[in-house]
Amino acid sequence: MTASWCCRTGAWSSRAPTTNSWRTEEPSMNSSRDTNPFEMPGRGLIDEALPFLQRLPIFSDTPYDLLKLYAYLAEKEQYRKGEIILQQGEPCDRLMLIMSGSVAIWQQHRGRRFLLQELSGDSINYFGELALIAEFDCFYGATALGDVDLLSFSRESFHKVMERFPGRYRQAVDRIVRLRIHRFVEQTNYLFDHLREEAWREFVLDDPS
Length: 209
Known about the structure:
10 strands; alpha+beta; globular; 4-stranded antiparallel beta sheet; 4 helices; Jelly Rolls
């Protein structure tokens, strides 16, 4: 295996919308997380999460027992248009897999928010992957561009899985790093495609002759 990808109850995490703009929405102060990371989730979530994970290329060679454990420890979350999923500068603790909908990845710089990437369930459908292996404050933000369904997997849950399958740790870390590289490349290409001409500064080596 592939945020911030603590185990949760598996119940819907529903939050009410307050705006339609991904640039202005702030996280709800009323939202909360389950503090019991090993409470048994609803059977319905496992039945939904397992086939979803099986369809993802990143889990193509994952043993069924391991995949089932990932599904058991995952939580499904729901966001409305304009709602912030991850806030820049706050602790990042889980991986997010987009089941449906689109998400804007942005970064605030000098008082302005810049769009870095748009992710969706039918293209690059994950973010927060590094949170599984390291503790850090999020260096970007994520906002729902419409109604979004996510499957989240916490760092705590990842460590629990690796304690049970220690022989899979190296492969899991390698895959997480590859996922981050892939998303970074796509993000860089997106920025290049949207740069204004005056922002380009082409790098050309002088002819040594």
